[in-house]
């Protein structure tokens, strides 16, 4: 299979979270994923996009960019916002930590992403935004594994 990529830009509106999830899952379907692998990707994308909407932009509308790249049997997903950034990434990645407890968020977003993906990297700069890079390795037959 040839390497492939796609890029999607959406406003940070909550109704776009489901759309982003479906677009990435559709793109990933080229890798002949199992139902479980697709569900993992959808869940991780949901968390990343929701973080950008709720934490990155808070109540403002900004652009969320989602890029996906397929390299052999790997799907790389980059979710980027130009929002307020994360002050302490290590703290933000701790299970149950939430910067917005009043919203009754679980604080499990990054933990969920780590659980469902094979690799997770978060880069962030205050006032500049956040980049979440996730990689999922597919065990599909077509990749020869």
Short structural description:
The chain has 145 residues and is α+β, with helices and mostly antiparallel strands.
Textual characterization of the structure:
The structure is a single chain. Helix content is 33%, strand content 28%. With 145 residues, it is an alpha+beta fold. It has one domain (4-143): Heat Shock Protein 90 (2-Layer Sandwich), CATH 3.30.565. The longest helix is centred in the first third of the chain and has 22 residues, at 35-56. The relative contact order is 0.21. The model has no long low-confidence stretch (mean pLDDT 91). GO terms for molecular function: ATP binding; protein serine/threonine kinase activity; sigma factor antagonist activity. It holds the Pfam family HATPase_c_2.
The end-to-end distance, rounded to whole angstroms, is: 13 Å
Sequence stretches where pLDDT stays below 50 over 5 or more residues:
none
CATH class: Alpha Beta
How many domain regions? 1
Compute the gyration radius: what is it?
15 Å
Mean pLDDT over the full residue set: 91
Gross morphology: globular
Q: What is the H level of CATH, i.e. the homologous superfamily?
A: Histidine kinase-like ATPase, C-terminal domain
Structural class: alpha+beta
What is the strand content? 25-35%
Taking the sheet with the most strands, its summary is: 5 strands, antiparallel
Instruction: Return the CATH architecture.
Output: 2-Layer Sandwich
């Amino acid at each position: 299979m040839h390497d492939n990529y796609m890029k999607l830009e959406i406003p940070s509106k909550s109704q776009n979270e489901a759309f982003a999830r479906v677009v990435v899952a559709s793109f990933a379907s080229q890798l002949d994923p199992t139902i479980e692998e697709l569900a993992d990707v959808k869940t991780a994308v949901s968390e990343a996009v929701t973080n950008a909407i709720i934490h990155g932009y808070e109540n403002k509308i900004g652009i969320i960019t989602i890029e996906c790249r397929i390299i052999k049997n790997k799907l790389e997903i980059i979710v980027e916002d130009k929002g307020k950034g994360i002050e302490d990434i290590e703290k933000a990645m701790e299970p149950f930590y939430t910067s917005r407890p009043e919203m009754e968020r679980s604080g499990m977003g990054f933990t969920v992403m780590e659980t469902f993906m094979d690799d997770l990297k978060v880069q962030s700069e205050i006032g500049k935004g956040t980049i979440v890079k996730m990689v999922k390795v597919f065990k599909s037959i077509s990749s020869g594994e």
